[in-house]
């Protein structure tokens, strides 16, 4: 009797035991609104070590392009459709430069360090682009050593972009983080578009726009936000967001729906931790997420992302 009870308990505990989360180590592919992105496919691709080689290969598109090392002063490089741009190892990317994905579809950007955009520029800009997956990247500039408009955004997604997933990336030391929808006046182009998933991202010391989203639909989950003096997730002009299982530490207005636009946004906050900063949600969102996803808990997310987000993990 005693033994059979013990066996039963053992079997039950084996069945219900939570697996240790391993998702930080390897992501098999994008989840969320950008899930159908395949980029340049699974071929061996080519490796580039100079701005000119990167520019030529990226412009042509339709390939897997591996950047080896940090390329300085490339300016803003155009990326063609059905392309993957991936950094080699833990220290590859662009310094004082950026990438633009404009009027094309199906692009993957992974394991790239973006260290400071060009003057007035974005580190990564998506303009009229669809199906984009940004994964395990790092974005930063010089923080408050420069004035607010010296650089533009770290990751701007504008002009009716759609089906975008941003995952396992780090954003730090910058004024204007990520702008999804650039203007209150762009309703015609943006309404019904701008579906974005932001998950497992780590934000630190970014002044605002984590992201700011107008007109679109945003799903943000399992992310860590630290040290933001102005505003965090800013839903505006009827944009709808669902924010869940995230930890906001020392973030002023971690989620806000009535800031700096004529029309409010809508937000639903689920299982988030707010520490030193309160959400200001004036309208609830009724978003139903059309895909499967797995969250990691807010209580341990900052620790998980410190170890697993950014470059050097794929
Ligand atoms: C909170 O964040 C601000 C930047 O917004 C920073 O200056 C300050 O040191 C942070 N406070 C703590 C306790 O970390
Ligand atoms: C936003 O909403 C809050 C709470 O209802 C209100 O106190 C505040 O004045 C509003 N701010 C703006 C800029 O509309």
Please describe the topology of this protein.
Elements: H1 2-16, E1 46-48, H2 51-60, E2 64-67, E3 70-79, E4 83-87, E5 93-102, E6 105-110, E7 113-115, E8 124-127, E9 130-135, E10 138-140, E11 155-158, E12 162-167, E13 170-176, E14 179-180, H3 187-190, E15 195-199, E16 202-208, E17 212-214, E18 217-221, E19 224-228, E20 233-236, E21 240-244, E22 247-251, E23 255-256, E24 266-270, E25 273-275, H4 298-308
Parallel strand pairs: 1-2, 2-4, 3-5, 4-6, 5-7, 5-8, 6-9, 7-10, 8-11, 9-12, 10-13, 12-15, 13-16, 14-17, 15-18, 16-19, 17-20, 18-21, 19-22, 20-23, 21-24, 22-25
The structure holds 2-acetamido-2-deoxy-beta-D-glucopyranose (2 copies).
What does this structure look like?
The strands form three sheets. Strands 3, 5, 7, 8, 10, 11, 13, 16, 19, 22 and 25 form an eleven-stranded parallel β-sheet that branches. This protein has a ten-stranded parallel β-sheet with strand order 1-2-4-6-9-12-15-18-21-24, with helices on one face. 13% of the residues lie in helices and 39% in strands. It has a single domain (27-308), classed as Pectate Lyase C-like (3 Solenoid). The chain has helices at 2-16, 51-60, 187-190, 298-308, and strands at 46-48, 64-67, 70-79, 83-87, 93-102, 105-110, 113-115, 124-127, 130-135, 138-140, 155-158, 162-167, 170-176, 179-180, 195-199, 202-208, 212-214, 217-221, 224-228, 233-236, 240-244, 247-251, 255-256, 266-270, 273-275. With 314 residues, the chain is mainly beta. The longest helix has 15 residues, at 2-16. Mean pLDDT is 93; it is low at 10-26. It contains four helices and 25 strands. The site of one 2-acetamido-2-deoxy-beta-D-glucopyranose has 4 residues, from β19.
């Amino acid at each position: 009797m005693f033994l059979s009870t013990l066996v039963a308990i053992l079997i039950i505990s084996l069945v219900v035991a939570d697996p240790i989360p391993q998702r930080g180590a390897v992501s098999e592919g994008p989840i969320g609104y950008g899930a159908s992105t395949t980029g340049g496919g699974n071929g061996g691709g080519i490796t580039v070590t100079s701005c000119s080689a990167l520019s030529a290969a990226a412009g042509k598109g339709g390939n897997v392009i591996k950047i080896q090392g940090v390329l300085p002063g490339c300016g803003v490089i155009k990326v063609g459709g059905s392309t993957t741009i991936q950094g080699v190892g833990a220290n590859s990317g662009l310094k004082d430069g950026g990438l633009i994905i404009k009027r094309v579809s199906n692009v993957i950007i992974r394991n790239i360090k973006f260290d400071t955009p060009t003057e007035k520029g974005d580190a990564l800009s998506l303009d009229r682009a669809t199906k984009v997956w940004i994964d395990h990247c790092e974005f930063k500039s010089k923080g408050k050593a420069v004035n607010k408009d010296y650089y533009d955004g770290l990751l701007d997604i504008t002009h009716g972009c759609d089906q975008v997933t941003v995952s396992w990336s780090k954003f730090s030391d910058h004024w204007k983080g990520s702008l999804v929808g650039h203007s209150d006046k762009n309703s015609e182009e943006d309404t019904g578009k701008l579906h974005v998933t932001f998950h497992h991202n780590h934000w630190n010391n970014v002044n605002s726009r984590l992201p700011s989203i107008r007109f679109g639909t945003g799903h943000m989950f399992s992310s860590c936000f630290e040290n933001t003096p102005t505003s965090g997730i800013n839903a505006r002009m009827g944009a709808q967001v669902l924010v869940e299982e995230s930890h906001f530490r020392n973030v002023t207005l971690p989620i806000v729906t009535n800031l700096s636009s004529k029309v409010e946004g809508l937000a639903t906050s689920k299982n988030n931790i707010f520490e030193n900063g309160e959400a200001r949600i004036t309208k609830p969102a009724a978003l139903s997420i059309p895909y499967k996803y797995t969250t990691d808990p807010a209580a341990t997310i900052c620790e998980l992302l410190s170890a697993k987000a950014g470059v050097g993990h794929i």
